[in-house]
Design goal:
The complex is a heterodimer of chains A (203) and B (262). Chain A has 203 residues and is of the alpha+beta class. Chain A has 8 helices and 5 strands; from the N terminus they run ααααααβββββαα. In chain A, α4 (68-76) packs across α7. In chain B, α4 (77-90) crosses α11 (189-208) and α5 runs antiparallel to α6. The relative contact order of chain B is 0.13. The chains are: A alpha+beta (203), B mainly alpha (262).
Chain lengths: 203, 262
């Protein structure tokens, strides 16, 4: 049964958007999608199981709800076109794992995490859905989710926490790393490889 | 001497920029991608900044982080939240003046009501009652005020102790200290000690609230320096945008509303 808060949020999102039917249904769909995704993620984080099991469960969720390939291409920026198809392939594989690690390391340790839905507004081709995330021992955080194809096949394309975008930050990280390594894409790939191995080793 | 010392933040940024302007070596025009990247990062002092980043990291691991960890370990969460609220409340005079200088009457009203309610009902600011009564907190500092006045951030600056910065925000930091009544009120050893305790506690409080976040960033970033640079800029941009977009009407709800506000 959907919660009262969920119904209220959906109806609030509907009312706020006025009479534009298309935008309305896209926003409502995006809100419902974020609510469902958030419930799934929180369910895993707060649920039973070892860190390893949780990581596997989160990987499955992330692969279905996030446009990982799109985000990966965005994060490599101009270097995506310069990469050979083999480099693209290994970068893509590593990026999947890096993204899972980044998200699990942010969420994983917060047993007792919960979130509240905010408003949803169109943002270019996407819909931006606001949420507030509450983690024990931490101040509440405003998290905005950018949802593409809200009406048909919704996918998360960015997560913006307190005004800082995950994909923009990741992109500048890679750009700077490449800049300090002679723009060598293989250097980036081996650094990512090293990072993933370290994370798996430390559990 | 005390007065001189307090003017340091006002003129130091321009001095720093002049002194360090020689650090940069822009890429040649024959490499347009590299040049575009150089302009986009807008960090001509990067060699100096990276050294300061290393200095701060050492300071942080040696002093601030252990202290913040001990603070979280020793002090229960409810008490820490209360202390954070008290420190916030002490900061309201500066916040209020910046709300007004930004030309945001509704924000100034929120700040004013927050001070009245939290200082009285909220036990000298320990409880944030005002937020529950419809006066939420927001960010306001002189760096944001300068932004509202059309001053750009300028190149990136990483400063010892203060961390990520830019000339505009650093100048704003100095102005905010000068604008803080507690900088000037009273004299004697007790007042000085209280003043220093307040700053020390503010630093520990701020650091303790970032314990998980900072270690996560250092763990997951390939180039933490560049990641912090990007995060700082995005965060400031979003604070400023939020302030600029806060154009709530000043007409009371019981008064006929202007057509545009309906």
């Amino acid at each position: 049964m959907p919660s009262r808060r969920f119904l209220l949020t959906v109806s609030a999102a509907w009312l706020a958007l006025g009479a534009r039917g298309q935008a309305q249904s896209a926003s409502a769909a995006a809100t419902a999608f974020v609510q469902a995704t958030g419930d799934k993620l929180v369910g895993v984080v707060n649920g039973p199981g070892s860190a390893q099991q949780k990581r596997q469960a989160l990987t499955r969720i992330i692969d279905t709800v996030v446009d990982v390939d799109g985000v990966a291409r965005f994060c490599l920026g101009r270097f995506w076109r310069q990469a050979s198809s083999q480099q693209q392939q290994s970068y893509m594989n590593l990026f999947h794992q890096v993204l899972v690690t980044n998200i699990t390391s942010k969420l994983g340790e917060y047993q007792g995490v919960r979130f509240a839905m905010g408003r949803a507004v169109p943002d270019g081709d996407n819909v931006a859905v606001d949420t507030t995330v509450y983690r024990p021992n931490n101040p509440p955080t405003d998290v905005k989710w950018l949802i593409a194809n809200a009406g048909s096949d919704p996918k998360i394309v960015d997560v913006v926490a307190e005004g800082t975008s995950l994909r923009l930050t990741q992109r500048s990280d890679y750009a700077s790393y490449l800049n300090h390594n002679n723009n060598n894409i293989d250097a980036l790939i081996s650094a990512m490889h090293h990072q993933v191995e370290q994370d798996l080793a430390s559990g | 001497m005390r007065a001189f010392f307090r003017t340091v933040p006002l003129w130091l940024p321009s001095l720093l920029v002049v002194l360090l302007a020689g650090c940069a070596t822009p890429p040649p025009a024959s490499d347009p991608d590299a040049l575009a990247y150089y302009k986009e990062t807008n960090d001509p002092l990067e060699p100096f900044n990276r050294k300061m980043y290393a200095v701060n990291n050492a300071l942080d691991s040696a002093v601030l982080r252990p202290v913040a960890k001990a603070y979280v370990f020793a002090v229960p969460e409810a008490l820490r939240t209360g202390i954070h609220n008290v420190l916030d409340n002490l900061h309201t005079p500066v916040q209020l003046s910046n709300d007004m200088l930004e030309g945001k009457p509704r924000r100034a009203g929120d700040t004013y009501m927050r001070f009245l309610i939290n200082t009285t009902v909220g036990c000298l600011g320990f409880f944030d009652v005002a937020a529950k009564w419809g006066y939420p907190d927001h960010d306001a500092d002189f760096g944001m005020t300068l932004a509202e006045w059309g001053v750009g951030p300028g190149p990136y600056l990483y400063l010892p102790v203060l961390g990520p910065n830019d000339p505009r925000d650093f100048a704003g930091f100095g102005v905010d200290i000068a604008a803080d009544p507690f900088t000037w009120v009273g004299q004697g050893a007790a007042v000085t000690a209280l003043g220093y305790s307040r700053w020390a506690l503010t630093a520990v409080d701020a650091r303790s609230r970032l314990l998980g976040t900072l270690s996560n960033i250092k763990k997951t970033a390939l180039d933490p320096y560049a990641t912090f640079r990007s995060l700082y800029r995005q965060h400031r941009k979003s604070q400023i945008e939020e302030m600029e977009n806060d154009n709530r009407s000043t007409v009371p709800v019981w008064f006929p509303q202007p057509a545009s506000a309906r």
